[in-house]
């Protein structure tokens, strides 16, 4: 039945209904034919019994007297009657089994043994129209006044009964075929109509391309039946999923803006300090234009300040470029991340430990944008958790074909709400951490894994990413 499983339900149920109709028609036809056979058997037995009993009454005295001519005359008159037309042959024998007379003397001569006719003969109670032969043979005792005085052998023509049975079978087959065909077609369309909500539901669930759509109100059955409730429940689930996705999108957007706000404020502070120095240098040049050594030192200070501003601006642009996934990850991306979090490190007087293996990063074919976003968000949270005068550490290396990022910080353990955002896919609760759900979504998209531990006052978040996103996708 494996071939039957892939068939759609809208085809499978009508086929099952048609099969049941055929089975019911077959059983009904068998019962009709069996009843017809029983009626025919009863008719032929009754006719044979009347024939034998009538001959017994008429032939009993003649057989005892061995009046052969009278026996023959009686048989001849009996064969001319209405019932006798079915009797193809009738022969009468005495007690010794010797033929006294027969309706066909040429075939059954006088004084021949009746046993020659008894080879295929059956008793009266066993007489049945079995369809094997159009002629039935009957052998019955000839009884007169309670005494068996001879035997009667009779052959009955049942060709008309067999023809009647064949016609009944033909009519049943044609009638059942027509009725089954009409009912099957009607049942097919009726069941297809009843299963239309299921078909619509399956189409909505399989052809949405990742975004579920509700079933139109016009396609929902009327009333409060099971299919109507199923369609309404599905629409409710779709609404809940869409609402959840929208809430997560707004929350992720809010977290992104929070992270950008914190980063922007730190960068503004980082840019403002060099600007003050640059303005002082320009004032010095204006004040001492005639002192070349002062002008040279001020120009060097201006050059260093402008280069620092250029690096900060470039790192910020790379972090927020429109197509962040178009460029492969390089060691310079980690230098940009270090530069971006430096204001936060300075503001909180944190001790930063930075360990990046350039060779490991160069071997990766990961997109720069997602990796930068993951590292920056985790580092911002680590800085916030470490607090004033804490310690933050980043390690980047390759292990077993994966790029491993380890972000560690001292301070309190990560709250449960933040852990839920970072490690689980369930609904988002108030609280948590900046960008943690975004981090999890990015890691999942890259086919990676994330783990968390807190021991001896140190929190460690480890991210493992396949060094080639294309190969990871092929393995899946």
Automatic annotation (TrEMBL):
Domain HAMP: 192-246
Location (main, coarse): membrane
Domain Histidine kinase positions: 266-469
Membrane-traversing stretches: 168-191
Molecular function GO terms recorded: phosphorelay sensor kinase activity
GO cellular component terms, A-Z: plasma membrane
Entry keywords, A to Z: Kinase, Membrane, Phosphoprotein, Transferase, Transmembrane, Transmembrane helix, Two-component regulatory system
Subcellular location: Membrane
Gene3D superfamilies for the chain: 1.10.287.130, 6.10.340.10, Histidine kinase-like ATPase, C-terminal domain
Organism domain of life: Bacteria
Entry keyword annotation includes Aminoacyl-tRNA synthetase: no
Pfam families recorded: HATPase_c (PF02518), HisKA (PF00512)
EC number(s) on file: 2.7.13.3
Catalyzed reactions per annotation: ATP + protein L-histidine = ADP + protein N-phospho-L-histidine
Protein name, as recorded: histidine kinase
Lineage per the UniProt record: Bacteria, Pseudomonadati, Pseudomonadota, Alphaproteobacteria, Hyphomicrobiales
